[in-house]
């Protein structure tokens, strides 16, 4: 995997204000406001910053959290995780392994077969629908 590294100014030029806030500054969109929180379109969700494939729609489910949720990434190599103790909580942050974009968090309360819930900001994703 070729790493993508750019200055914050370069990212600011390429991304929308919301994408920049979420992906490069670690922000979070409000629950139930993201464009993909209830999308059922078959396809692959890619990183909005670098285009890396991250999640397949076959692993998406309605967690009731207000954010797109998946029980596994397309590959273990697609994501990097970090301890996050911000906002008085202990969580595991997930980032795109290729460009280090903040995606969201992973929690151990998801469905089988993994038991994981990847709770991801829509602003960090780009859905590429499957061809019919």
UniProtKB/TrEMBL annotation:
InterPro entries: Met_Sox_Rdtase_MsrB, Met_Sox_Rdtase_MsrB_dom, Mss4-like_sf. It is an enzyme of class 1 (oxidoreductase). Its cofactor is Zn(2+). The keyword Lyase does not apply. Keywords: Metal-binding, Oxidoreductase, Zinc. The active site is at residue 119. Its EC number is 1.8.4.12. This is Peptide methionine sulfoxide reductase MsrB. It comes from Stutzerimonas tarimensis. The gene is msrB.
